[in-house]
Amino acid sequence: MKLVFLGTGSGAPSIKRNVSSVALIFSDESKVWLWDCGEATQHQILRTSIKMSKIEKIFVSHLHGDHLFGLPGLLASRGLACGKNQRNIQIFGPEGLDSYLKDTLDISNTYIPYEIKITVIPTNTKSGVIYEDEECKVNYCEIIHSIKTYAFSLEEKKKEKHFLIEKAREYRIQPGPIYKSLKEGGTIQLPDGRVLHGKNFVINSQKRKKIIFGSDTTFSKNLVNFARDADLLIHESTFSIKEKENALCNFHSTAGMAAETAKNAKVKQLILTHISSRYNLKNKNNRVSEKDLLTEAREIFPDTLLAEDFMIYHI
Amino acid sequence: MKLVFLGTGSGAPSIKRNVSSVALIFSDESKVWLWDCGEATQHQILRTSIKMSKIEKIFVSHLHGDHLFGLPGLLASRGLACGKNQRNIQIFGPEGLDSYLKDTLDISNTYIPYEIKITVIPTNTKSGVIYEDEECKVNYCEIIHSIKTYAFSLEEKKKEKHFLIEKAREYRIQPGPIYKSLKEGGTIQLPDGRVLHGKNFVINSQKRKKIIFGSDTTFSKNLVNFARDADLLIHESTFSIKEKENALCNFHSTAGMAAETAKNAKVKQLILTHISSRYNLKNKNNRVSEKDLLTEAREIFPDTLLAEDFMIYHI
Lengths: 315, 315
Prior knowledge:
homodimer, Metallo-beta-lactamase, Chain A, 7-stranded mixed beta sheet
């Protein structure tokens, strides 16, 4: 799988960062899922190799405009681009999303030549499963923002081949051509004449990749538990530690808060996103830059990256 | 005054052309009015010298998404960019615009730190004045599209100095330095000794520039009358003559229809906009290019230009 960061700014778009959206492209590139859909997400997609027709599911974390206002236009353009013979689409999000979409598409008389199925998260639940199929499961968990907001986790169920390193060591096979051949299922002969079959060194294991799409939140213990042992946590980092008060007042996070969540949850990788345009280096009044956000986070959690628009992350 | 074309494509955005919007910047650059506001109009504005705080009025021709979906995000970002001390905004458009905006801003919990006054055009009227002040007047006129759609005219009332050429001729003054000096209000002495004062050769006259913002329509006699003698007609040209049936079925215009309107209305200048992405030369299946649209129109009405995103037109 790979992720394409389509919008990594907060609140309003800037030249450098659009408002929120991330695309998840599955390994065989047969389908794309979107996580949030700020205004001009469809414009960002035009600048990638993503095909609109392959977008199958859209998860909306909350109904603030910078995560939502691109949705009606994207759905309309998907219809215009692909005509009648395209896949239906499923959209998931907070209560109110259904009426927003219905009202907006109705008043604009937008013709959608495919079916849209909307699933809303019941307001009286804090967490649960919102989607599951043979390949993966998506859970939601309420986080702490000024309106009802959810983080989502995607847990993969894909079977992966697992090479038995310890067994290879018993035969004193070190990483190299023989090791590689065995790993790929080949048959090799050792210098002492013994023949080894790769199939005896490989087992099919359940390897569940787990990705957390964190959305807008201040530090949330719920999110720490939800993100436990994830392979990747995408977490907002609207502010630097120097504006911690601002972060708390507005239910957002500092880079340090994001890193604390990653550290406590013991995730493998943290990616900071939802970066305020005030940290853009072109603004000469800045005392803090985007790089400082990254430094702030890495002091707490070293395995941190700073997202930028069109960044691709393989997982 | 000058116009900045922010979006000149039809239906869905392309890399080359965004969906519809035109900005009108008044001569002293103190204020900006927008005509339609398709998705990512605010993103286009970021790429110009236009200040969000100077946008005072927005005219919406109809409620199709490619003319409308940028409005909530633009209003929200204008609030974030400029804080509390900014001007109020007036928005004009068809019935339904008020509930669309109210519902969208409510459900997204968007805080707008300035007043928005919405004026809707009564559905039972076909034409009328929608705004007037000391400087200019804006009329609307219903045109022919798949939903209720209006063209707008802006008529300027600016006072301009007018030189009395006939009176100068009585004194046998030919164009040249003396003529120029009089025109600028100076005092001159003729070879025969007579003294002439420029102020007696200049009168203040009402010169009304008239601009027509045409929007989506098929050929409309109403629009011909409405655009009569305008200095500029901005008219859609979604299709070429080769797709006239398509134009008629979808209540759009060919380049030729736009030119017929310009010719019959005796306007001074026609600008074609709302160009379908099918005519983008990068699409190798094209038999017709954007240039062909321009040629088609110019055969009927020579004073035609083809708009492109970020084109500036002085008037």
